[in-house]
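FORM 12-B: Structure-to-Sequence Request
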């Protein structure tokens, strides 16, 4: 098996996929040993941890994690507003002080929902409910965000990209902001820190 054949990557991939689909390769002991050896080398090289992925907010304010999926990360307006708010607040915010950021949250919500022309009164009511002291709505929203992220990202990365923190303390997104790419012009202009 020391012969090397020069074929294109795509041809080789197609052939391998067909062989794996028909279970021929997986029955061959020599192939099994080779695959195990390659997998263990790859695990050592990568430390068995998935790679961080860029966070892209495109020109229509859609959210993507391109290394793990080409599908949009779909969230309703309020969770998406909260998520973007925490992406823009690098050092984090205490939930109990969210009412101090009502204007910023409103600004982001307007951008996120700009094509739907939602009444200002409805937006304010939704945000006031979110920031109301003693209300658990923010925790519910963070739970929705975490669940949505877990559908796209490997389990090991969810805590890095979700909003995390201790009760009564700062909550933030741990992912490096160098991974954040904002393509939406209005969002690019918003800077809080």
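FORM 12-B RESPONSE
SEQUENCE OUT:
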């Amino acid at each position: 098996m020391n012969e090397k054949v020069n074929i294109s990557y795509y041809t080789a991939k197609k052939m391998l996929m067909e062989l794996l689909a028909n279970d021929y390769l997986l029955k061959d002991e020599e192939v099994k040993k080779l695959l195990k050896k390659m997998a263990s080398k790859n695990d050592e090289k990568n430390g068995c941890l998935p790679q961080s992925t860029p966070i892209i907010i495109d020109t229509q304010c859609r959210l993507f994690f391109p290394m793990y999926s080409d599908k949009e990360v779909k969230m309703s307006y309020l969770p998406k507003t909260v998520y973007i708010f925490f992406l823009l607040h690098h050092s984090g915010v205490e939930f109990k002080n969210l009412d101090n950021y009502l204007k910023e949250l409103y600004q982001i919500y307007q951008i996120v929902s700009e094509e739907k022309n939602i009444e200002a009164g409805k937006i304010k009511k939704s945000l006031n409910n979110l920031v109301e002291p003693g209300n658990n709505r923010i925790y519910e929203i963070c739970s929705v965000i975490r669940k949505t992220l877990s559908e796209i990202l490997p389990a090991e990365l969810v805590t890095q990209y979700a909003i995390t923190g201790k009760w009564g303390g700062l909550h933030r997104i741990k992912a490096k902001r160098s991974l954040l790419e904002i393509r939406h012009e209005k969002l690019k202009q918003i800077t809080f820190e």
